[in-house]
Backbone:
């Protein structure tokens, strides 16, 4: 019971902070968007040159460090890794590809919905479909294999990178790109964005809040524990938006969004499936990175690489819609995800036989 | 003898799925599950309790041993 209350509180805090961040300067319906923010960081580091989406987002830094400090404090920090790192990098790339077609990670999808952007209502069933596809693989024994304990330095790599980004943000050397217009130029003040990231990092580490796990556990186990957090984000953000006059229902003219329904739907199918195969939504990957899981860090790096790929080749969606090349990326992503899913389903069965042999 | 399920190195939901499978197969027999992270420990515990079982958790070095019985 206490767990339930805690996860609802965590979701509510995420929803509330998202509304506050937008009020204080973040782009509309983008209090938090893990995919967008990692994409902005990619741009700030010059990995892509889309001038309107370049900024070292403190929310990302805060999420990793908040989780890191909490994991250390509760003794859950553990350097592990080595579970199919290359595939995880690709899964990160694909997760980012789908998110940049729709223009938002699952968390932003919920926030867009809470802001009255009905395109997110089209995307949500697409996301659920993707997660459902993923559960089919899980039921057939999908696994990326066991992770191993690693030297602690592997686990410190993620938090270390977060601190380096923070230093670069504060010192703002000339080689870092900061957008002068567009969404990348819009941000709430540093103490708020960093503070919100830290707080959510702490709460998400304790509650395991995950926008993919919410749907997955509901489908697999009829377990609605994580789903409560998911709903809490939506309800509180919606109430917040209504109270602050940020609720603007409709399809057209939504901020950082387009109305290509098919690609909103299928882009999020890519994200949902990739998230199940990678074991966590974009936000969860940041939290796991803070806990010392280098498998999650490699997924995050894959996301950063995916963002560069999508923008360098003009594949990302924009308010004008999704380009034909971007549409191909969705199709290719789905095919690759099904191949990754199918190729890793037999491993667990093989492993189980080994266990049986050991036990007998 | 108790069924052993080794979920060390696996991330959720795999430990929960393997533990549930083992519990269903074992009927009333106890099942011991090894996990290597706190998330799996908590999730397997929650799943087992939802199935009406009792769970005793022991630290095993860096890992956890979950003794699940009726």
Residues:
């Amino acid at each position: 019971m206490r767990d339930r209350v805690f996860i609802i509180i965590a979701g509510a805090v995420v929803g509330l902070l998202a509304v506050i961040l937008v009020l204080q300067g973040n782009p509309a319906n983008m209090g938090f968007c893990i995919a967008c923010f990692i994409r902005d960081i990619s741009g700030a580091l010059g990995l892509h040159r889309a001038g309107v989406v370049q900024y070292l987002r403190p929310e990302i830094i805060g999420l990793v460090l908040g989780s890191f400090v909490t994991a250390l404090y509760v003794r859950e920090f553990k350097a592990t890794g080595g579970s199919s790192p290359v595939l995880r990098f690709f899964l990160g790339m694909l997760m980012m590809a789908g998110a940049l077609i729709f223009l938002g990670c699952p968390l932003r999808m919920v926030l867009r919905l809470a802001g009255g952007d009905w395109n997110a209502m089209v995307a949500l069933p697409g996301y659920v479909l993707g997660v459902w596809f993923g559960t089919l693989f899980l039921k057939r024994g999908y696994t990326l294999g066991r992770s191993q304990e690693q030297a602690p330095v592997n686990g410190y790599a993620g938090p270390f990178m977060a601190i380096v980004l923070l230093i670069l943000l504060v010192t703002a050397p000339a080689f870092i790109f900061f957008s002068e217009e567009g969404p990348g130029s819009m941000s709430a003040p540093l103490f708020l964005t960093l503070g919100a990231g830290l707080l959510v990092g702490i709460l998400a580490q304790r509650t395991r809040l995950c926008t993919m796990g919410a749907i997955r556990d509901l489908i697999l186990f009829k377990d609605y524990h994580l789903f409560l957090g998911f709903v809490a984000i939506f309800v509180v953000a919606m109430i917040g938006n209504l109270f602050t006059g940020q609720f603007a229902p409709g399809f057209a003219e939504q901020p950082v969004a387009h109305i290509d329904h098919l690609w909103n739907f299928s882009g999020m199918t890519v994200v949902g499936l990739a998230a199940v195969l990678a074991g966590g939504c974009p936000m969860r990957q940041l939290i796991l990175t803070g806990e010392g899981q280098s498998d999650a860090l490699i997924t995050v790096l894959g996301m950063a690489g995916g963002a560069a790929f999508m923008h360098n080749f003009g594949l990302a969606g924009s308010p004008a819609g999704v380009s034909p090349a971007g549409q191909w990326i969705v199709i290719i992503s789905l095919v690759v995800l099904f191949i990754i899913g199918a190729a890793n389903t037999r491993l667990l069965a093989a492993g189980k036989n080994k266990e049986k042999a050991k036990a007998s | 003898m108790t069924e052993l399920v080794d979920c060390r190195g696996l991330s959720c939901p795999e430990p929960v799925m393997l533990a549930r499978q083992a519990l269903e197969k074992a009927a009333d027999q106890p099942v011991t599950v090894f996990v290597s992270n706190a998330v799996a420990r908590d999730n397997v515990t929650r799943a087992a309790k939802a199935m009406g079982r009792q769970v005793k958790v022991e630290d095993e070095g860096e890992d956890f041993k979950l003794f699940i019985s009726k």
Summary: DSSP finds two helices and four strands in chain B. Strands of chain B lie at 3-7, 31-35, 54-60, 63-69. Chain B has one domain: 3-69.
